[in-house]
Amino acid sequence: MSRFWSSTVHTLRPYTPGEQCNDPGWIKLNTNESPLGPSESVLAALRDAVSPRLKLYPDPDAAALRAVIARHHGVEPSQVFVGNGSDEVLAHAFLALLKHPLPLLMPDIGYNFYASYCALFGIERVAVPLSDAFALDVAAYQRPSGGIVFANPNAPTGRALPLSDIASLLDANPASAVVVDEAYVDFGADTAIPLVHRHPNLLVVQTLSKSRGLAGLRVGFAIGHADLISGLERVKNSFNAYPLGSLAIAGAIAAMQDTAHLERVRTVTATRRAVLAAGLEALGFDVLPSLANFVFARHRRHAGAPLVAALRERRILVRRFAQPRIEDHLRITVGDEAQIQALLAALAEIT
Ligand SMILES: *Cc1c(COP(=O)(O)O)cnc(C)c1O
User: Fold this and answer.
1) What confidence tens digit (pLDDT) does each residue in 9-42 have?
2) Distance of CA 313 from the midpoint of ligand 1 (Å)
3) CATH assignment, 17-37+260-350
4) CA atoms of 89 and 180, how far apart (whole Å)
5) Does ligand 1 lie within 6 Å of residue 111's CB atom?
6) Cβ of 180 below 6 Å from ligand 1
7) Domain regions of the chain by residue span
């Protein structure tokens, strides 16, 4: 603490990211990075972008990238916003669209960064409980609010809401902006992007960090009505006019164009996720149905904290959240086959 801190700094609730351990001896299943990594075409585009042209500022509007994303998702470029990771896109959405006199609604179990943004921007929030089975209860959101935000599939549960439920949520809340964080949508859920044509209050946020294997490049985007997008642009241009560097723009364009790589990631992840879930169940875990690149599981006899510690002793990292209702759950990334087998072998010893 410092007497030079502003009063805002005292009230912040900084997000704690999963441990980033770069030691090759460790099995890292705690931050949902892709074991398949980026496609070859992305690496080639990045190598090509490493040139004396780096002396120039990047395009502040990243028009070429927005055009590629717009084409991929069947919208206009004016309906696309890009940022330095979807965390930044979400932050701008909180300030631009979700800060109102009425409180912002979000699930009690969700992405913890949302609470950090609320503290940063002075947004009042209400945590709406998920059901006992960790499903999002659409009816519980039918009340006046300053906005609604949730991840679909949800994190850290992995459970997804069908599109029909998102459509009824939008119909029931036409006066609130609804932000759907689709960080994991490519792993099996349906994107809500087609709904933006009928719902001017819907903003869908996606990232290239997970399914496209580009967590290190920092690119995320949002799709919604052009009026929502221009609100995000006003915030962005009041904060950092050049959030994406030339390398990020070049790599992201190549990533959005490589649909074959994405298809492979989808298929491989679904297969491995089933292997991981079945292996965990055989060891006495209850595993939630996941449509993400991680599973959320609780052992029927062992508490969460000692399990995480015992895995850590074996140099395996998984994520646990010390918060009510989920303190005994482990969130485990769907790694490659060797990582899954090493994790299951370690748990067989421990449990
Ligand atoms: C990983 C993640 C993000 C952030 O991804 P970026 O790397 O900032 O694009 C956003 N929301 C959820 C739910 C995530 O798990």
Assistant:
1) 999 989 888 788 878 889 999 999 999 999 999 9
2) 27
3) 3.90.1150.10
4) 12
5) yes
6) no
7) 17-37+260-350, 40-257
